[in-house]
Amino acid sequence: MARNAEKAMTTLARWRAAQVQEAGGQRERRPYLASECTDLQQAEKWRLQIVREIAKKVAQIQNAGLGEFRIRDLNDEINKLMREKRHWEVQIKALGGPDHARVGPKMLDQDGKEVPGNRGYKYFGAAKDLPGVRELFEQEPPAAPRRTRADLMRDVDADYYGYRDDDDGLLLPLEQEAEKEAIAKAVEEWKRNKDENKDQEIPEEENIYPEDPDDKRIEDDENEKSTETSHVAVPSQKDVEEALLRRKKQELLEKYGCLDVKMEES
To answer: Where is composition skewed (Acidic residues) in this entry (predicted)?
Structure first.
């Protein structure tokens, strides 16, 4: 690929430079600031020139084989030209021209979708597939709406608790049939056990409740048995008092009788 110096020396470039000089001097350059232009026709011309440059660079950036650095440079240049175009549109509106920002078409990609961007910076062509850019525009799936307790209780009725399961007429016949089978099976098993134990002596049932020595009910039963079999006469209160009186008299006689005997001996 030829260098810029070699391009300038070609016959076409020299012929073009001669045409410009004949037309009236050097080639006119676009003003750096849009506010410096006070002519509406000139402002429209510079805006159209910027639009052509943007279209050319957008066509170039579609080639993914340019490399990451070249694609990033092209994308930066396109965004710079987009900002400059907006400045010229503001100047055109200030000079009494049409409002291109309001009536102009939106920037669309090759799929017909609006060019994605973040805070005014947009990505074109292969720049949308650069590392870190694709993840920037991937939208997360919307979260499922959270249901409140009122929403959950709205579907709870008698059917939820099974109160009307018997109303369909399907469950009762099945339950009756299962009940008959269970009864027949139990009767058959009882008859079989009865036939097997018919010729065998029935052993005495083992006491599965051993006696507890601390059980008060056993003591009460033993006391009742002893009272039932006892024939000893129980003394009354008067008999007890007479017996105590006789015992007291006997003790006094023994005491004072011994004293009298000792005095006589002395």
So the answer is: 202-213
Closest CA to 220 of 228, 231, 210: 228
Q: What is the mean pLDDT of residues 45-58?
A: 89
* 245 beta partners: none
Distance CA(31)–CA(234), nearest Å, equals 143
Residue 217 pLDDT greater than 70, yes or no: no
3-state SS record for the chain: CCCHHHHHCCHHHHHHHHHHHHHHCCCCCCCCCHHHCCCHHHHHHHHHHHHHHHHHHHHHHCCHHHCHHHHHHHHHHHHHHHHHHHHHHHHHHHCCCCCHHHHCCCCECCCCCECCEECCEECCHHHHHCCCCHHHHCCCCCCCCCCCHHHHHCCCCHHHHCCCHHHHCCHHHHHHHHHHHHHHHHHHHHHHHHHHCCCCCCCCCCCCCCCCCCCHHHHHHHHHHHHHHCCCCCCCHHHHHHHHHHHHHHHHHHHHHHHHHHHHHC
